[in-house]
Amino acid sequence: MWERLKRLFRSIFGGIIDAAEDPELILQQVIRDMRDQVPKLNENVAQVMSHEKLLEREIATLEREITDLDGKVRAAIKMGRDDIATTYIASMQEKQNSLARAKEQLVVAKKASQQAIRFRDEYLLKMKRKQEEAMQLISESRRARMQEQLAATMASFQIGDTAASFDEMRDKISRRAAAAEAKLELSTIGVDSQMAQLEREVYNVQAQDALMAYKRQMGIIPDEPQPLPESVGPERTLGPAQRKALE
């Protein structure tokens, strides 16, 4: 019974967790966590390298002290003070032993520094690859979510629900277009329309006559010959005004 209850609870809470998990948010958090480790790695590398630097300074100091003691030993021997020379020699030997140990420690410290730097560089390279992979996965997740939303939208879109609206609007537009055509046809066959058409024709004739007159004045076309007046008979003579008009 207990095993069945545990299996039931695991199935319930596991489903809730799966539904609540957002791959994009989780991947972004993973990237942030990896970036947060970089300062700590740099600090560890700095500590290892600082130990190496301290050993180098210690070695340099010991070498200067040994050189100084060597000079003092030589000076004491020249002065015939073997007791002082012996003391300097003992101190110099102690410094030499410390120098040997420091050099051994420096070799180990250099290896540790190199390993720390190599580990840091490998981690940065790994982090960069993980970031690129995470960004690709985030893009795929967003694309998948958009496709899911589109699929849900298409699933909820029913052609039958809107077909009636399309048919109704099509009939309404057709009726409006037919009414507009009928109104236009009526407006073109009315009396006012006929009068307007007649006026336009008159204007066109007048414009053509004016154009011909301009061309005659400009000499582009010859003048039309004037018609001769009707015969008035032999017994009737023309007056001066009539003769002038004929001229």
Describe the structure.
This protein folds into two domains: 154 residues, Helix Hairpins (Orthogonal Bundle), CATH 1.10.287; 43 residues. With 247 residues, it is mainly α. The longest helix has 75 residues. The chain is built from six helices and no strands.
Sequence-ordered SSE layout with sheet pairings:
Elements: H1 2-20, H2 23-78, H3 82-156, H4 159-189, H5 191-217, H6 240-246
Question: Could you give a short description of this structure?
Answer:
The protein is mostly helical and 247 residues long.
* Record field, number of beta strands: 0
The average pLDDT is 76
Please describe the biggest sheet, giving its number of strands, its sense, and whether it closes into a barrel: none
Which structural category fits the helices and strands?
mainly alpha
CATH fold topology of the largest domain: Helix Hairpins
Tally of alpha and pi helices: 6
**Helical percent range?**
over 70%
CATH-derived architecture of the largest domain: Orthogonal Bundle
Task: Count up the domains.
Answer: 2
Give me the Rg, rounded.
58 Å
Identify the CATH class of the largest domain.
Answer: Mainly Alpha
| Termini Cα gap | 140 Å
Helix and strand sequence:
HHHHHH
Strand content: under 5%
Unreliable stretches covering 5 or more consecutive residues: 13-18, 231-236
Label this structure with key terms.
Helix Hairpins, 247 residues, mainly alpha, elongated, single chain, 2 domains
